[in-house]
């Protein structure tokens, strides 16, 4: 029986050995958001970067809050999210080196075909939110501290609505990613704020359709920054900075603009000549 | 949901085409969960046997705690392992986060209590039956343990399959410590979660059916092996 | 290499209680020499307990047991055989069960199989050598358990009601094996509540009642005219309180 045990241990050692990292080539870990992942953008443009530099891009897509926390823990080399205030705080507190604009897209408000709040077709999102609250029409919120969630809360604030009081009633916080929240919104016949990229690539729209779009306040800016190697010496600073440079440089910006679903462009590159801090 | 049937069968068409991505995901799922089940057995079998055979103060409490650990939520295990393996955590320098190795660690911790608790119960029952006879033949405690483990091998195999089943079905632990990274740490359950969140419900369901089929095949294989072994070795 | 001995098996001042009831009270007791001793008595007399204490399986509350003057130890345990009321066999073939027991003793691998086969022949089980042990009939299993115990060539063999659940044919087969072993020099101590069996097998009888040895002596004398009134009553078929 011990002979069998020895060969079993051998097999296990090989299996474990194959599972140990470091046998692959060079790679960086990018902490990004579920909205970015659901849109499929990084799946398409990252390989272009890899082809040019040989550096593999491993994307961990979680809620913005978790992505930032992971970056604070040093569990990533690059942070790519869309929550400007949180990003600037991240850099100000020394966790990030420098923040750069990368691209933008916009948010839209999707809603049920029946349009109980009567907001379809309007271009004023704050007014629409006021009408939704007045009608107590169901609204599905991400509720997960993400960039989308933070943007949504700002709009409620501008509309003068106290959504905390309404939580559990017409205001429903799913605490999950964009796709899951869209699933829930469709199922509940609720309005929902979503980024256009996720919306276009989402395959379970059910009865939902775009109700409100085009308002300047629906502008959604993405920022990228390097995790500070001084705080976490393990960070792959050189490779990470390469990715950032590529992303805000002509090649990356073109790749972003080229990305389309059903002929529609989802993200609009806007890396400026000067970086913001 | 447009074209439910079309999207549902897409999963099986991918399989029939031997789609490279799908095969890689299936292979990784099996590798992670089988490894975890085996490592968990290496920990759990001796632990369970030891708890069954030795007497020590607080033994009953240990048994209760062990049984309770069988119900550890996968997402909690994932969180704990993440905190350990994170760069900000104690085992950060190992750089295991976001690798299959981290997923194996998390699932091993999840599954080991199941195997240990089931092994303990099996061995304890057997000890009642065999204990005196083995003592009278002159076997020492470790010899008794290994004899009882071998005697109970088929019940223990079922315990192992239970552990494997739990591992291959969970998503909470592997998604936190693995990160569901494309081509690196994406397994069947995390893919199903991802496709669901993208709204590709039918595809997700199809993948789910494939996952169940794989689990059935693994179990079937083990039972077939057991039948052969029984025939040849008078088990 | 000097053979480790276990005889004489001696007990002094043995007391054992459970839940406030005194189950064994044996100030002194010794097993030595040759022959077949039957420990007789009604149910609950403490016969099985006494056997287990002597075999080192149970620790008494008070008193001590010695094997050849020294306390029981695992190394010498195999010189002491024990057959239980219900046979305990491993999930393997009949001959494999015996080979396994021999393996524990450290016997040379080449000799193990030969010895196992020989013992099976003596027990008239050679036709069932490769059968699954746990699928044999009750009588065959017990014969196998006894054969396994004898394969180790013990100095003393304890048996705890080995034929209580067996049919007459199997009982006879077991009794024949025991008589042969006793004649060959193995010291045998057999617990039974079957008076007829005691008459058939015993060289010596120990009568136990309520945890005490009430009488011990040559079988012939015991059955013809026993001293203790309880023993007499028992032999006449009375149910002892």
Which descriptors apply to this entry?
heterotrimer, B: 235 residues, mainly alpha, MetI-like fold, globular, C: 241 residues, alpha/beta, Rossmann fold, six-stranded mixed beta sheet, three-stranded antiparallel beta sheet, 8 helices, 25% strand
Describe what this molecule looks like in 3D.
The complex is a heterotrimer of chains A (277), B (235) and C (241). Chain A is built from twelve helices and twelve strands. Chain A is of the alpha/beta class and 277 residues long. Chain A folds into two domains: 27-104 and 221-269, Periplasmic binding protein-like II (D-Maltodextrin-Binding Protein, domain 2, 3-Layer(aba) Sandwich); 106-218, D-Maltodextrin-Binding Protein, domain 2 (3-Layer(aba) Sandwich), CATH 3.40.190. In chain A, strand 10 (260-261) and strand 11 (264-265) form a beta hairpin. With 235 residues, chain B is mainly alpha-helical. Chain B has a single domain (4-233), classed as MetI-like fold (Orthogonal Bundle). Helices cover 79% and strands 0% of the residues of chain B. Chain C has 241 residues and is α/β, with parallel strands linked by helices. Chain C contains eight helices and nine strands. In chain C, helix 2 (94-104) packs across helix 3 and helix 4 packs parallel to helix 5. Chains in contact: A-B, B-C. Chain B binds chain C through residues 129-130, 132-133, 135-140, 143, 147, 151, 233-235, and chain C through 52, 55, 57, 74-75, 77-78, 80-82, 84, 88, 90-93, 96, 101, 104-105, 130-133, 152.
């Amino acid at each position: 029986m011990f002979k069998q045990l020895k060969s079993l241990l051998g097999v296990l050692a090989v299996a474990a050995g194959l599972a140990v990292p470091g046998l692959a080539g060079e790679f960086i870990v990018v902490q990004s958001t579920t909205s970015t992942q659901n849109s499929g953008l990084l799946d398409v443009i990252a390989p272009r970067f890899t082809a040019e530099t040989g550096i593999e891009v491993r994307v961990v897509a979680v809620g913005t809050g978790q992505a930032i926390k992971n970056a604070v823990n040093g569990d990533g080399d690059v942070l790519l999210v869309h929550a400007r205030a949180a990003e600037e705080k991240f850099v100000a507190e020394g966790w990030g080196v420098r923040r750069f604009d990368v691209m933008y897209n916009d948010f839209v408000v999707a809603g049920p075909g029946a349009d109980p709040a009567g907001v379809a077709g309007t271009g004023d999102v704050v007014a629409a939110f006021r009408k939704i609250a007045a009608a107590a029409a169901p609204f599905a919120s991400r509720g997960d501290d993400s960039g989308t969630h933070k943007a949504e809360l700002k709009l409620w604030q501008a509309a003068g609505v106290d959504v905390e009081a309404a939580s559990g009633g017409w205001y429903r916080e799913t605490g999950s990613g964009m796709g899951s929240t869209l699933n829930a919104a469709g199922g509940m016949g609720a309005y929902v704020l979503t980024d256009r990229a996720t919306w276009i690539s989402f395959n379970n729209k059910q009865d939902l359709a775009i109700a409100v779009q085009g308002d300047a306040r629906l502008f959604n800016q993405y920022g990228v920054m390097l995790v500070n190697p001084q705080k976490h010496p393990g960070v792959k600073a050189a490779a990470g900075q390469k990715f950032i440079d590529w992303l805000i440089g002509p090649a990356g910006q073109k790749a972003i603009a080229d990305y389309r679903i059903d002929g529609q462009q989802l993200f609009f590159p806007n890396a400026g000549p000067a970086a913001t801090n | 949901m447009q074209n439910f049937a079309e999207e549902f069968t897409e999963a099986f068409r991918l399989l029939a085409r031997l789609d490279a991505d799908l095969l890689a995901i299936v292979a990784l799922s099996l590798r992670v969960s089988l490894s975890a089940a085996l490592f968990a057995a290496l920990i759990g079998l001796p632990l369970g046997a030891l708890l069954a055979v030795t007497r020590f103060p607080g033994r009953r409490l240990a048994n209760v705690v062990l049984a309770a650990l069988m119900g550890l939520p996968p997402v909690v295990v994932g969180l704990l392992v993440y905190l350990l393996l994170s760069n900000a955590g104690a085992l950060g320098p190992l750089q295991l986060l976001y690798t299959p190795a981290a997923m194996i660690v998390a699932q091993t911790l999840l599954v080991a209590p199941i195997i240990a608790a089931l092994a303990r119960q099996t061995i304890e029952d057997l000890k009642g039956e065999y204990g005196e006879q083995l003592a009278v033949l002159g076997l020492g405690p470790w010899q008794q343990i290994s004899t009882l483990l071998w005697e109970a091998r088929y019940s223990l195999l079922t315990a192992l399959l239970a552990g494997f089943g739990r591992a291959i079905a969970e998503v909470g632990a592997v998604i936190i410590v693995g990160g569901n990274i494309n081509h690196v740490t994406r397994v069947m359950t995390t893919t199903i979660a991802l496709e669901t969140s993208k709204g590709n419900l039918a595809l997700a369901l199809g993948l789910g059916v494939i996952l169940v089929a794989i689990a059935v095949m693994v179990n079937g294989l083990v039972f077939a092996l057991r039948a052969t072994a029984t025939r040849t070795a008078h088990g | 290499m000097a053979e480790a001995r276990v005889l004489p098996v001696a007990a002094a001042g043995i007391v054992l209680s459970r839940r406030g009831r005194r189950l064994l009270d044996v100030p002194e007791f010794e097993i030595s020499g040759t022959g077949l001793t039957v420990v007789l008595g009604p149910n609950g007399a403490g016969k099985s307990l006494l056997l287990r204490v002597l075999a080192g399986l149970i620790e008494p509350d008070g008193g001590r047991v010695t094997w050849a003057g020294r306390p029981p130890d695992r190394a010498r345990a195999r010189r002491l055989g024990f057959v239980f009321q219900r046979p305990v066999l491993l999930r393997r073939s009949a001959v494999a069960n015996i080979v396994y027991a021999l393996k524990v003793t450290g016997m040379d691998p080449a000799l193990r199989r030969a010895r196992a086969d020989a013992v099976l022949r003596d027990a008239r089980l050679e036709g069932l050598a490769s059968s699954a042990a746990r699928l044999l009939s009750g009588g065959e299993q017990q014969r196998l358990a006894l054969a396994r115990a004898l394969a180790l060539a013990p100095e003393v063999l304890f048996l705890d009601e080995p034929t209580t659940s067996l049919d007459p044919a199997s009982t006879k087969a077991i009794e024949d094996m025991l008589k042969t072993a006793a004649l060959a020099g193995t010291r045998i101590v057999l617990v039974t509540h079957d008076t007829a069996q005691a008459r058939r097998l015993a060289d010596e009888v120990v009568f136990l009642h309520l945890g005490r040895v009430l009488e011990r002596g040559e079988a012939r004398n015991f059955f013809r005219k026993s001293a203790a009134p309880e023993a007499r009553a028992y032999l006449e078929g009375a149910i002892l309180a």
